[in-house]
Design brief:
75 residues, alpha/beta, four-stranded parallel β-sheet, globular
Amino acid sequence: MDKVVIPDPVGAPALVADGVAVVVAGPDAALVGTAVAALRAAGAEAAGWIGDPSDDAVREMAAELFPGCEVVLAL
């Protein structure tokens, strides 16, 4: 895996077959949690971020969780 994508909860399920790590980001904890659980159940490496997806901190977290991966915001 060489890429981590940061989608909103609605766009996250489409990424399960792409072979990328996913950090689902959004303000609704229930939606983020549901999306992360579905991704993990499908075998994807996934984490969640509760808050503004465009916040620099979410990209920093993605880089720390998945070192060496390109971080891509997909909103």
